[in-house]
Amino acid sequence: MESQDETTFTSLNEKISDRTMKAIAEMGFEKMTEIQAKTIPILLEGRDIVASAKTGSGKTLAFLIPAIELMYKLKFKQRNGTGVIVLTPTRELAVQTHNVLKQLLKYHSFTNGLVMGGAVKKDEEDKFFRGVNILIATPGRLLYHLVNTKYFLYKNTNCVIIDEADRLLDIGNMDKPCYLFSPNELDLVQLLCTKTSCTWVGSAEKATVKDL
């Protein structure tokens, strides 16, 4: 059984940068939720996982904090392009995730971007021209930019996070993907996860973590 100290964010002081820790504290978070305590230490080691937990359990912080720390460890620069891609099934979730990301990045210099259906493509293209280190995207719009936006520098992508993976892929037991994506979008996910570290995050009543 974990002690109270082991489930606080301060227990990760030696693993998480001061910049991120300061942002976490300002956001009012002290104790990690179950899914955060189970996943953050694993993800900080750079391991691939499948994780599931109920809505409102703190999943967003669980994957964003290690993603930011990866960029920090790599000393990623704006000119390096996109290092992390977070794929979400809906525009609403994409906006929510982006808002959390911006708070966590308060003391970092990493650039961030949000691309999603319904937004102005030209504005998104301008962001890619300037450089987007951590990208939040919906599948269709991500596919559009991969195919059409020449300034989208994604060859340096190190990590792909599939949020609400059960909604995106109806993967059931996380082992056999089915077509809820269009064929091209499914190919995109499989390609990205083959070439990078990948984290799948789904919804479930019980917090579970599985190494890939």
Automatic annotation (TrEMBL):
The keyword Lyase does not apply. Gene3D superfamilies: P-loop containing nucleotide triphosphate hydrolases. Its EC number is 3.6.4.13. Residues 9-37 form the DEAD-box RNA helicase Q domain. GO terms for molecular function: ATP binding; hydrolase activity; RNA binding; RNA helicase activity. Keywords: ATP-binding, Helicase, Hydrolase, Nucleotide-binding, RNA-binding. It catalyses: ATP + H2O = ADP + phosphate + H(+). A motif (Q motif) lies at residues 9-37. InterPro entries: DEAD/DEAH_box_helicase_dom (IPR011545), Helicase_ATP-bd (IPR014001), P-loop_NTPase (IPR027417), RNA-helicase_DEAD-box_CS (IPR000629), RNA_helicase_DEAD_Q_motif (IPR014014). Residues 40-212 form the Helicase ATP-binding domain. RNA helicase. Belongs to the DEAD box helicase family. The Q motif is unique to and characteristic of the DEAD box family of RNA helicases and controls ATP binding and hydrolysis. This is ATP-dependent RNA helicase. The lineage of its organism: Eukaryota, Metazoa, Ecdysozoa, Arthropoda, Chelicerata. The gene is Ddx18.
